[in-house]
Amino acid sequence: MIRRLRPTLPFPYRLLAPMLVLLLAVLIYPLLFSLWVSLHDYTLTRLQEVRFVGLSNYLGLLRNDAYWTAMRNTVTFVVLAVGLEFLLGFGLALLLQRRLPFRDVFRSVLLTPMFITPIAVGLMFRFLLNSQLGVIPYVLREWLGVSIDWFGPRLALYSIILIDVWQWTPFMLLLLLAGLESLPKEPFEAARVDGASGWQMIRHITLPLMRPIIMAAIIIRMLDAFKVFEYVYAITRGGPGSRTEVIQYHIYRVGFRFFRMGEAAAMAYTLVLVTLVLSVALVYAMRKEVE
């Protein structure tokens, strides 16, 4: 008599197994191949001369000024963009939590930018902020007498940041508003009875209760902000000079314009390492706060 073998995996894992196998099949090969490329002198114009160089591509980044400039621009972009998006998103979420007239209409309108393709947003603001033909510079110049070169050496990176804030603040608003509406009502009612002001309730009740949601929103948005590429490609192409050359655009230039795929793959893996370390640190901090 043959005994029926019991499956060794718990039931939830058996349900997830097909999708995990599919994801691994799709992801593992590109990841391993790109790692292999990063360890070789792999140039698209000399494929017959590919040779193993070990960690030379990674060590070469330590002396690569263009790489560090791109990384510095990227970190500046991520810190300022995500910080502004959080502040604006949280403020709008607190406002829209109230029972305002046409609240649902305001919510729908504010969420609209999030659904536009980033490359289309970049092209749109490229024309809106053009110093010669743009509507916004014209209005500032003719009505207020203010002339601003939005994509000049001083303001180009900050203009890209403001464009990102315009498009992705609704994402932060959506997450934070959902978090606010899920909070229990009893602590706020008790604080109101005790005479607490609105600011005191936000500081001592709302923020501590919202901390896990805030950290999750910042992590998600931060990971996406590190991948910024479309605005730079559509508007400035990294210029003027290298003022807006973020790391994703720099990797694109090295890999697909200069054909140095080994060096580009090494840069990509350093970016993965940076985002992974930051994500783990934020998740650890979030868990400590919850405990």
**Radius of gyration, Cα only, in angstroms?**
24 Å
* CATH superfamily (homologous) name: MetI-like
Order of helices and strands: HEEHHHHHHHHHHH
Q: Give the CATH class.
A: Mainly Alpha
Strand-residue proportion:
under 5%
The strand count comes to: 2
Q: Give the neighbour order of strands across the main sheet.
A: 1-2
- Range of helix content: over 70%
List the helices and strands and how they pair.
Elements: H1 11-38, E1 40-41, E2 51-52, H2 56-61, H3 65-96, H4 103-111, H5 118-128, H6 135-143, H7 156-181, H8 186-193, H9 198-225, H10 230-236, H11 247-256, H12 261-290
Antiparallel strand pairs: 1-2
Helix pairs in contact: 1-12, 3-7, 3-9, 3-11, 5-10, 7-9, 9-12, 11-12
Question: Would you write up a description of this structure?
Answer:
The chain is an all-alpha fold. It has a single domain (62-290), classed as MetI-like fold. It has 12 helices and 2 strands, in the order H-E-E-H-H-H-H-H-H-H-H-H-H-H. Helix 7 packs across helix 9 (198-225). It is globular. It starts with 10 loop residues before the first helix and ends with a helix. The mean pLDDT is 90.
Features of the shown structure:
291 residues, mainly alpha, MetI-like fold, two-stranded antiparallel sheet, 12 helices, globular
Concise summary:
With 291 residues, the protein is an all-alpha fold. 70% of the residues lie in helices and 1% in strands.
